[in-house]
């Protein structure tokens, strides 16, 4: 066998490969693997929510089934008691066994005319009232909704109990009662009992900030809540044992991140990934990157550590930064500033960020600037809030101080402009968009406005599908999960909505007003049934489902 030609052929093929090409191929494979893993996690979360919903429906159906069986058994018991009384009246015995009862009843069916010759007809009403009394004592007064139907009488009775009494106690023969199958429980129309509505209740109020709390963020793994305030501090709270909290629990923050010299207005963090990082910005126009410190690594009562947990500083905006949003999957961060620019940043890992920052290099890569396309003489459009489209991860939404909503493609930068107010009405009110929430199951975008309205937009048609008054004051914060929406306003209340019917399910007075501001931010834990709100009263409140 000639092996020399085979070896030379392999060598010639190997010469076509380079180290750079191999590394590039491996990077692409890693990215595709991470993307598939992320998609799997998102699908897992959606299926978990669906399973929980179906389990709730199943439990409600089983409760209906159990209640029906209980009512049938109670009705059988009352029926037996009435049959015994009837047998005593017709048979004249004080003790009558079941055989005698069945014999008398069968005989009564054959000779109904002759049996009903003993008691006066006026006793019929008394027995009917007596039966109603028994049903009330057993809690079955709703079995008969109206008067009992009279029995058809072919012969005029004389001095008898009346054949109506026999109609009351003569029911079809007993049949074997079997539990209703689970597959049929949803089709029951006899008792329309809706599943119990879930409601939110305040668990605890966290008191530590000295000024307005503007932003909240839940960490994915460690059970950490971060709160950013105008007192220039970011406080970290350990909420891993939140189930034991109550209104009398004293909970203090276990660490404070210091570095900002002006009020902090916004904060975000990565949701999926091993590293836990925080990104904060405010009136300085500077974005700071923080390493999230777990509670187990901090001795709250020990000596202060000299370590600085700020691992990066991004300087690019010239005005205050109003909003930050981290990409649900990729290492990307959006920043919306008062200078009229929305910037897209590429993040790096913690080690690289620390090395770059210590060496004086920029710890992030600015990818692209996005601005509102305007013509000559048009008003300047200032972005106020942003949000990633979860169903289309290559796009994001930007709200402005003007009645416009923009959908940008992060790769091409091409905008799709949605105008939700007529040209003639644009100058009558202030239509500024204060907050945006996107759905994780549909192409729906919800915006909260300065004019107290909630507006629902369809991304596919780029149109406003619903416009309603959400609060008695400006809508300042939104959070959306599945088919449910939570909104906070400067009236100090939280409102819970069903986006399928656009109905308000619950309202909670949450925060006191201060300087015409109320609720300022809302956040929900990604895995716990836990929600947090913060406001102008410097409080952070936790809520759970009851």
From TrEMBL:
Residues 37-71 form a coiled coil. The keyword Membrane does not apply. Pfam families: Striatin (PF08232), WD40 (PF00400). CDD domains: WD40. GO terms for molecular function: calmodulin binding. PANTHER family: CONNECTOR OF KINASE TO AP-1, ISOFORM E, STRIATIN. Belongs to the WD repeat striatin family. This is Striatin N-terminal domain-containing protein. It comes from Stentor coeruleus.
């Amino acid at each position: 066998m000639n092996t020399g030609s085979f070896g030379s052929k392999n060598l010639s093929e190997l010469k076509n490969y380079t180290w750079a090409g191999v590394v590039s191929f491996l990077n692409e494979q890693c990215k595709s693997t991470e993307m598939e893993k992320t998609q799997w996690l998102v699908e897992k979360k959606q299926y978990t929510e669906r399973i929980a919903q179906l389990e709730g429906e199943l439990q409600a159906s089983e409760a209906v089934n159990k209640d029906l069986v209980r009512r049938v058994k109670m009705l059988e018991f009352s029926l037996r008691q009435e049959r015994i009384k009837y047998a005593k009246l017709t048979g004249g015995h004080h003790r009558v066994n079941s055989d005698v009862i069945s014999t008398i009843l069968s005989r009564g069916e054959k000779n109904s005319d002759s049996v009903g010759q003993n008691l006066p007809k006026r006793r019929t009403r008394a027995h009917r009232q007596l039966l109603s009394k028994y049903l009330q004592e057993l809690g079955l007064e709703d079995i008969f909704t109206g008067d009992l139907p009279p029995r058809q009488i072919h012969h005029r009775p004389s001095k008898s109990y009346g054949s109506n009494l026999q109609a009351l106690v003569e029911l079809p023969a007993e049949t074997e009662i079997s539990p209703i199958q689970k597959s049929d429980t949803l089709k029951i129309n006899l008792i329309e009992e809706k599943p119990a509505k879930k409601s939110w209740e305040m668990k605890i109020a966290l008191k530590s900030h000295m000024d307005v709390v503007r932003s909240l963020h839940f960490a994915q793994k460690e059970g950490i809540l971060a709160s950013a305030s105008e007192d220039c501090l970011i406080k970290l709270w350990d909420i891993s044992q939140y189930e034991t909290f109550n209104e009398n629990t004293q909970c203090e923050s276990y660490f404070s991140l210091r570095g900002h010299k002006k009020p902090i207005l916004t904060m975000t963090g990565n949701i999926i990934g091993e590293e836990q990082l925080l990104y904060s910005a405010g009136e300085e126009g500077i974005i700071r990157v923080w390493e999230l410190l777990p509670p187990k690594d901090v001795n709250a009562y020990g000596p202060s550590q000299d370590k600085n947990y700020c691992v990066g500083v991004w300087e690019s905006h010239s005005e205050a930064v109003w909003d930050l949003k981290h990409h649900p999957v990729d290492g990307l961060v959006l920043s919306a500033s008062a200078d009229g620019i929305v910037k897209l940043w590429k993040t790096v890992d913690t080690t690289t960020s620390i090395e770059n920052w210590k060496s004086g290099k920029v710890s992030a890569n600015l990818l692209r600037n996005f601005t509102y396309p305007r013509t000559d003489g048009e008003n300047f459009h200032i972005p106020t809030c942003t949000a990633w489209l979860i169903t289309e991860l290559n796009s994001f939404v930007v709200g402005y101080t003007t009645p416009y909503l923009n959908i940008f493609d992060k790769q091409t930068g091409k905008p799709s402009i949605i105008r939700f107010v007529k040209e003639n009405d644009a100058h009558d009110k202030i239509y500024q968009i204060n907050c945006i929430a996107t759905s994780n199951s549909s192409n729906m975008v919800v915006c909260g406005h300065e004019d107290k309205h909630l507006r629902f937009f369809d991304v596919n048609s780029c149109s406003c599908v619903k416009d309603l008054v959400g609060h008695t004051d400006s809508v300042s914060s939104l959070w959306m999960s599945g088919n449910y929406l939570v909104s906070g306003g400067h009236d100090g209340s939280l409102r819970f909505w069903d986006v399928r019917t656009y109905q308000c399910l619950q309202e909670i007075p949450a925060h006191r007003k201060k300087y015409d501001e109320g609720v300022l931010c809302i956040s929900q834990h990604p895995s716990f049934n836990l929600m947090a709100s913060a406001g102008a009263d410097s409080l952070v409140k936790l809520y759970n489902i009851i």
